[in-house]
Amino acid sequence: MKLELTAKQFRRLLDMAYIGNWILNSTRGDDRFKDYDDVESLLFAKAREEGMGVLTEDWKGEAVPSRAFAEGGIHEAIMEYENNVFFDILAEDLARRDMDDVPIDESNYDELNRRIDAYIAEFDQHGTDNILVDSDTLP
User: Fold this and answer.
1) Which residues have C-beta within 8 Å of that of residue 62, sequence separation ≥ 6?
2) Maximum C-alpha span of the chain
3) What is the pTM of this model?
């Protein structure tokens, strides 16, 4: 297979590969999806060949994203995504809970969305400041 990219496009591909591998493998410990690590390593080895060596370092004989790459802002993008997803998932979970976890269909879909929107508005305004756990229920 042959793929032709500009340097800028290749740099964006490195970002996407890193983000994807981070999402798939960052919480897996030693049980990583090695085939994704291998693709990432292949791309970062190519980066070195293409004059982007500052983005790559070697670890255990494999090309991996360098500290400069990892600290260059990519984690801020990942954190922004995780923050948004967190609030979306929390809002939907709370809305479904409020509806007693009934199956969602066209008869209650609008109600679910109204509740989700209300939670999102609350989170936008106050974050998690108004979420409380009754201390009497703690173990």
Assistant:
1) 37, 41
2) 63
3) 0.77
